[in-house]
Amino acid sequence: MKTAVAPTADKAEKRFTTISGRPIERVYTAEDLRGLDERRDVNDPGQFPYTRGIHPTGYRGKLWTMRQFAGFGAPEETNQRFKDLLKAGGGGLSVAFDLPTLMGRDPDHELSLGEVGKCGVSIVSLQDMERLFDGIELGRITTSMTINSPAPMIFAMYLAVAEQQGADWKTLSGTIQNDILKEFIAQKEYIFPPRQSMRLITDIFAFCAKEVPKWNTISVSGYHIREAGSTAAQELAFTLRDGIEYVQYGVDAGLDVDSFAPQISFFFNSHSDFFEEIAKFRAARKLWAEVMRDRFKAKNERSWKLRFHTQTAGVSLTAQQPYNNVVRTALQALAAVLGGTQSLHTNSLDEALALPTAEAATLALRTQQIIAHESGVTAAVDPLGGSYFVERLTLDMEREAKQYFDVIDRMGGMVEAIEHGFPQMEIAEASYRFQQAVESREKIIVGVNGYVQEDETPIPILYIDETTAERQLARLETLRKTRDGGRVRAALDALKETARGTGNTMYPLMDCVRAYATVGEMCDALRDVWGEYEEVPLI
Amino acid sequence: MQKIRVVIAKPGLDGHDRGAKVIARALRDAGMEVIYTGLRQTPEQIVGAALQEDADVIGMSILSGAHMHICPRVMDLLKEKGLEDVLVVVGGIIPDVDIPKLQQMGVRGIFLPGSPMQQIIDFIHQNVRPRAEV
Q1: CA within 20 to 30 Å of A440's CA: A210, A224, A285, A451, which one?
Q2: Residue A482 lies in a domain
């Protein structure tokens, strides 16, 4: 079948590859699926290994959650954006924090200069968390918080607000990203050294299993790995291998795998190469199911099922001809839906220029609603299942991920691989190769290296002024004067004491938060005990 | 001919270093001597690195919106140390309204997302100070 139509000579010279550089054949046939076992490799939706989805009914029973990531300025401004998004039909909240908060620094630290409220909302103490969720009932919504190194501190603040509102921790639902490994690998928002960071995570696993059982304790993230320039297969491999590392550390800390594994969720990127992305999502479910059942001997089916959030690829957005980004995002969102995502964030058209305006953010949400309600793609589960091409790509993705698992296992695990700089170098290589492909015009990016347009009209963008920093600094000064200083010091000392020993850090952190200790103070307490991580820059 | 010496720096708290690393490699492949400072460098550290490395060029990658705080400080420090002839270029997410302000304070090259690497390489070749005869 494959050679039935001979390609013309000049067509044969052109290489067809995915955005990740994977060669693509002219046509795929049953020959390409020789060796594929229908039951073992694909099976029905809702059946192990869940290649076709974790629910037998797909989106018929429940659409994905349309969860738009938002945060900027002071807490009141983000609170207003949250209320607008909920009113526009958004299904859950997703908090973006500013860099000082993400790095565990108060606004008055020298490195916070110019960063307060810029890339997200500034959260300094429990007071800010109270403002952020003012008028929003935490018992009735689900909240995702993109926070990693200071995840325990921010999560403790969220729990304290829930407590004030009278919500039962046992029914609270939401997600903290809490994925430190991808910070060392890609996004670089680390504070403490890897092993101490892993302990904070296993402390959260244990704390939540007991106190907040419905909370998603970690969102193992490939998103940032991909944004840093990895290929699709590397995103899949490193993310799932990170997941394995977290489960292994949990088990090594004495936890029963089924007590915490069902609350592990994932977060992937949906990039521009349509079918490769769909194959990546399908392969992810299969790989995780096998790892959990066979490697960790998990008994609970919920431990086998990989649930994931998706965000469209920020890195694919262009500053040139920004309206083109609406189309890119729509295609990427469609790939995520065809891949069976549980929740989705669609980027706004202006995000290569600034944080999104309210109008751009609404259009991004509408994009999802159009896919959900107008395109018809939600009616049949995994509509691309059985496609020769998609099934072949799914198998290839799986194989490549397993090859990386082997390499990383031989290094002793992901923490060790990171210490060797292995994933970091693999990603740096891949991102440089892609940039070269763009420079040579082997890959065309519309508006950037093809179909370029001069004299573009600028679009309106959101400009964050300096009043946020001034306001947050003034508030911090007042807080330090008015709170019970003795209670704060005692709580921070207790935190240090626990950090030196082996107790669960979440309990003393709750006390710090209730005493209105700041994110910077809590992180400094742990810096005093554990030190800070510094990476060796590799290029 | 002596190689052009470039310090590539990531100031501020942001850790998104893809652009900094890609440009560092591209400049190195173009025959320049590249020193990458790593993450979270203060203006003092960046200018200190330029002084110590006898840099002809400082390239800063800033995506977080902190450029209007970082750049003035770097330019002042360069003046203080008598390094006014070091070519300063910035890449990242820079709103249009800030571009003239940055140029006015002496940032010569400003490169937005999607700028071809060759354009940056050419810009450096055309604008770098001639190296003193040894």
Answers
A1: A224
A2: no
Helix (H, G, I), strand (E, B) or coil at A471: helix
- In one letter, which amino acid is A258? D
Cα distance between the two ends of chain A = 46
Interface-testing mutation among A98, A115, A357, with chain B (most B C-beta atoms within 10 A): A115
pLDDT tens figures, B70-102: 999 999 999 999 999 999 999 998 988 999 999
Look up the ipTM and state it. Answer: 0.91
**Sequence-separated (6 or more) residues with CB below 8 Å from residue A45:** A52, A53, A54, A55, A56, A57, A58, A381, A382
Domain range holding A511? 490-530
Distance from CA of B117 to the nearest CA of A (A): 7
* CB–CB contact A113 B66 (8 Å): yes
Q: How many residues does chain B have?
A: 134
- Report the residue of chain A nearest B10, measured CA to CA: A537
Is the previous residue joined to A49 through a cis bond, with omega within 30 degrees of 0? yes
Q: How many domains does chain A have?
A: 1
pLDDT digits 0-9 by tens, B49-77:
999 999 999 999 999 888 999 999 999 99
Q: Looking at residue A22, what is its pLDDT?
A: 95
Task: Kindly state the tokens that stand for B86.
Answer: 């070091």
| Tokens standing for residue A285 | 């479910």
Inspect the interface and report whether the beta carbons of A432 and B22 lie closer than 8 Å.
Answer: yes
Tell me the three state secondary structure of residue A88. coil
A515 is a domain residue: yes
Backbone angles phi, psi at A61, to 5 degrees: -75, -45
Contacting B with CB below 8 Å, chain A residues are 99-100, 102-103, 105, 110-115, 118-119, 183, 187-189, 227-229, 315, 318-320, 352-354, 428, 431-432, 435, 438-439, 445, 447-449, 458, 461, 463-464, 535-537, 539
Chain A residues inside the 8 Å CB shell of B66: 113-115, 118
Task: Using a CB–CB cutoff of 8 Å, tell me whether B111 touches chain A.
Answer: no
- Asked if residue A496 is part of any domain, the answer here is yes
β-pair partners for A9: none
The residues spanned by each domain of chain B are 5-127
Give a yes or no: residue A413 inside a domain: no
Rg, Å, chain B Cα set = 13
Q: Which CATH number fits domain B5-127: 3.30.530.20, 3.40.50.280, 3.30.360.10, 3.30.565.10?
A: 3.40.50.280
Please state, in angstroms and as integers, the Cα–Cα distance from residue A450 to each residue in A149, A274, A319, A320, A439, following that order.
Answer: 40, 20, 14, 11, 11
CB contact under 8 A, B14 and A99: yes
Does A110 contact B16 at a Cβ distance shorter than 8 Å? no
